[in-house]
Write a structure and sequence with these properties.
Layout: H1 12-22, E1 26-28, E2 35-37, H2 39-58, E3 62-63, E4 69-71, H3 72-75, H4 79-85, E5 91-94, E6 97-99, E7 106-108, E8 113-120, H5 125-135, E9 144-153, E10 167-177, H6 180-200, E11 207-210, E12 222-229, E13 235-245, H7 247-251, E14 255-257, E15 263-265, E16 267-274, H8 276-285, E17 302-306, H9 314-330, E18 335-337, H10 345-354, E19 359-363, H11 365-370, E20 372-377, E21 383-387, H12 391-416, E22 418-420, H13 424-433, E23 437-442, H14 446-456, E24 459-464, E25 472-473, E26 480-481, E27 483-488
Parallel strand pairs: 3-9, 17-18, 17-19, 22-23
Antiparallel strand pairs: 1-2, 4-8, 5-8, 6-7, 9-10, 10-16, 11-12, 11-24, 12-13, 13-16, 14-15, 19-20, 20-21, 23-27, 24-27, 25-26
Helix pairs in contact: 2-6, 9-12
This protein binds one RNA strand of 77 nucleotides through residues 1-3, 28, 32, 87-88, 123, 152, 154, 156-158, 163-164, 168, 170, 217, 236-240, 272-276, 306-310, 313, 341, 343-351, 353, 362, 364-367, 374, 491.
Length: 491
Amino acid sequence: MAKELTTRAENYSQWYNDLVIKADLAENSAVRGCMVIKPYGYAIWEKMQAALDKKFKDTGHSNAYFPLFIPKSFFSKEASHVEGFAKECAVVTHYRLKNDTVNGGVIVDPDSKLEEELIIRPTSETIIWSTYKNWIQSYRDLPLLINQWANVVRWEMRTRLFLRTAEFLWQEGHTAHSTMQEAVEETMRMVHVYADFAENFMAMPVIIGRKSENERFAGALDTYCIEALMQDGKALQAGTSHFLGQNFAKAFDVQFTSKEGKLEYVWATSWGVSTRLMGALVMAHSDDHGLVLPPKLAPIQVVIVPIYKGLDQLPGLNAVAEKIKKDLEDKGVSVKYDNRDTQKPGWKFAEYELKGVPVRLALGPRDLENGTIELARRDTLEKKILPQEKIADYIVELLDEIQKNIYTKALNFRENNITPVSTWDEFKEVLDTKGGFISAYWDGTAETEVKIKEETKATIRCIPLDTEENTGTDIFSGKPGKFKVLYARAY
RNA sequence: CGGGGUGUAGCGCAGUCCGGUAGCGCACCUGGUUUGGGACCAGGGGGUCGCAGGUUCGAAUCCUGCUACCCCGACCA
């Protein structure tokens, strides 16, 4: 028993930490707050990137790359933006080291102080809008639809692998439009792209909504988000899309000449998802045996494990396994045949379960005699003996079913954990005993939201897009509210 | 930045109170037996006990200072 996981019931957050490390997704690095994403974890991220990148291209966006460093002065141009990020910026002040003649080693050369400090990007709005100023002159240059895949740094006090690290990987889309309506449409389009990705690839149901003013992105007029529910009943913001209005256009003087010959400021959006999605993926589906990966994001979809007494039995098993592997690969399934003699079958079973491989095939001498093979599903842990014939076709369908099953399971959980309440006592009770999303009327004031947060640590996760306007009573203040919002404790 | 905790082999830990030749489990290496749910036996390698001072014949252990990391709070995708 080399790798024991803490169970979810024992300690959910320990379970998460154990799992990320033991499934070889990532580990802490020598640099405080920064993680090393290991090959298996990175392979999942690459699958996420590929799926998202395609969706961005399909909606007309192009990739580009902007600098890691941002001149400090750029930050001060948009007031609320600075305020939002100032407290968590890493700053480059010098550009050279020199030998320390006194104590040995190296020291920062005091003569190399920068005229203007450089901020390591916590997000790229400022550097991008200072660039867009030169790219945009006419309505003919619009819309400008750019995405970048990059790393960013936000100097966090407390970090957790994937969920919150000082450096993380993400994509940030930055678009410019000639009309407000077009920019609003783009904002909405992209939040729906995220929701579609979360549901169809990650098999993670999300609620699309609008953020309250408190939770809004620094510098945005409106922030839309996808919110997911983790198995411990805490919410996790999985992606955001911002309508930036003309704030950045005005701050960086980005104007264009309209068809009518008038000089106007452009309208902007930005949107992003990060490696935090990896954390969401882990917490949405996995169990006490390890990861449960949706087939569409699993680096290995099927693993084949041979079982034999004596190495002389291996060649016969190899022949059948290689054939099945090829049949599957011809159908676009990624397969690993693990015939290492250095580990025993039982060890391999446990290992691939830990790593969330959706389907496992085991092939032994009995199967060779009978023309059968043992198939185990990771999501349900069911085992079946099946004929080898047409196993590839069966698996192709099964992968699809597993993808759906994982989603349905997560959806049922989510639906069972949205609790409508109408009194403050009920609110606190549900929050402490059940968790999940709490649906309640809100009077629309930041004051109420802040007080609720202070008392319970729950925040307004979002105002769901599909909520109908109605009249109700605010759960906390008793004042009239126009719509129901979702409260939750969040990551 | 407050409050708590821990630094001993790659990982997880015991030993520290009461100073006397550094240990256990896992992992690793060699050989053999094994292989349908994390194999077993035998042998083997690996440590300036976080760092720097001090006390002592002798320090992982006692004293002083420093440092790193983890957990809980204030901030955040």
